[in-house]
Amino acid sequence: MANQRETERYQNSILDPIYQNIAFFYEDTETVVESLHRKKVSRGRYGRYHNPLWEKVEKRLANLEGAEQGVLFSSGMSAIYHSLMALFEKGSFILAPVQCYKNTKIIFQDLLSKFGVESEFVSLEDPDLFLEKVYNCREHLDAIFLEIPSNPHLYFADLEKIRSIIKKDTLIITDTTLATPINFNPIEWGADIVIHSCTKYMGGQGDLMMGCVLGKNGPLDTIRTHRNITGAVPSSHDTFLLNRSINTLSLRMEYLNNAGVQLADYLKKHPKVKKVYYPSLEEHPHRHLYDKYVKGYGGLVTFDIDADKEKVSEFVDLLEHPYMASNFGSPQTLIEHLSVFTYYNLTPEERREIHITDGMIRLAIGYTVSIASIINDIDKALDKI
Ligand code: PLP
User: Fold this and answer.
1) Pairing with 140, which of 94, 96, 131, 216 sits 20 to 30 Å away (CA)?
2) pTM: predicted TM-score of the whole model, two decimal places
3) pLDDT at position 224, please?
C-alpha cells in the first residue's frame, strides 16, 4: 500500500499560499506512470517547471487578456528575450519599431543577430509609412514586434490593418506594458502573443520584478518549454505579490486613466508648455488609433517645456512630490527630464532623430499623492522658472 502522506492542512484560505518548494512527490508508482509517462494526471514535478501559484497567476492574466494560456517570467526582459529565442531561428526575419525600449532594441540588434535572426527597425510615427513597410516585406516576414503605446511619445499602431496585410502565419507580438490588459487587448485585434513587464502597472507597488507572455497554445507551449529548460522563472514571493496586485489592477488603472486626462488638460493650457504627448488630446498624432483600440489612455504623460535645458532642470529640482526615478507603475509619482536622464548618453543629433528635446519631461503618475496636489506642485514650479 502506498505511503499515506499529509498533503494540505487547510484548503479554505482565501489568499493563495506561497509554495516555496522545489520537489513535488507522487503518491505511488501508478501516479508516476499516469502523470509522467501518460500525461493523464496532473502533478507538479520540480520547481523550475511547476509551482501552483504560477499556474493560478498565469490563468488570471490569460483571462484578463483573452488569451488561451500564460507563461510567467522573472522579468519583462526575460519574457521578451526567451519568447523570441524560443520561436525564431537562423534566417527568421522580424520587424520591430524604432520607438521601443532600449534594451529590447539591444536584444534584436546584438543578441538575436548572433544566432542569425534578422530584424529591421521601422518608425511608428507615420502609421501609413509603417503599413507600407510591412506590406513591402510581407512575403518574408516571420513576425512583427510592436511596443504600443510607445515610450515616451505614446505612439500607437493600426493593429487590425497590419493583421490584414500580412501572411496568416506571420506572428504579431506586442509589448503592451504601458496599456495593461485593462486598457487594451491586442489579441482581439489579431495579435498572437502579448508580453507585459509585470514590474510596472501589473505589479503596481514598485516591489516586484516579473514578466508574462500571453497568447495561443501553440507558441505558448514552445515558450513554456524554453522557459522551463533555461530557468528564467519568477520567485515564489514575487508571484505571491503579483497575485495580490492583480486584485487592484483595474482600480489603479481607472484612477490613472482619469488622472492622466486631468494632468494633460492642465498642461495643454499652460503657456510655458510647448507640447503635450497624451492621447486624450486632439493634438496627439495617433489619437484616431486610440479612439479605435483603447479603453483608457494610462498614467504616463510626456510634455515639452518651452525653456532651455538648465531651466527645465531647475523646474524638476523645484518639485516637491515626484521622485526623480526611471520607472512607471509605482505608487509614487516619478519624473524624468529625458535629455539628462534616460537619454543623457545620446548625442544631440541622436536625440533629435528620436524627437527627444531638451525640454522634454516624462511624468509617471502614482497614487500616494492626489493628482490635484501633483498639478499644484507643477504649477508652482513652472511659475518660478
Ligand atoms: N517593456 C517595456 C515597455 C518597458 O518599459 C520595460 C522596462 O522599462 C520592459 C519591457 C522591461 O521590463 P523589466 O524591467 O520587468 O525587465
Assistant:
1) 216
2) 0.96
3) 98
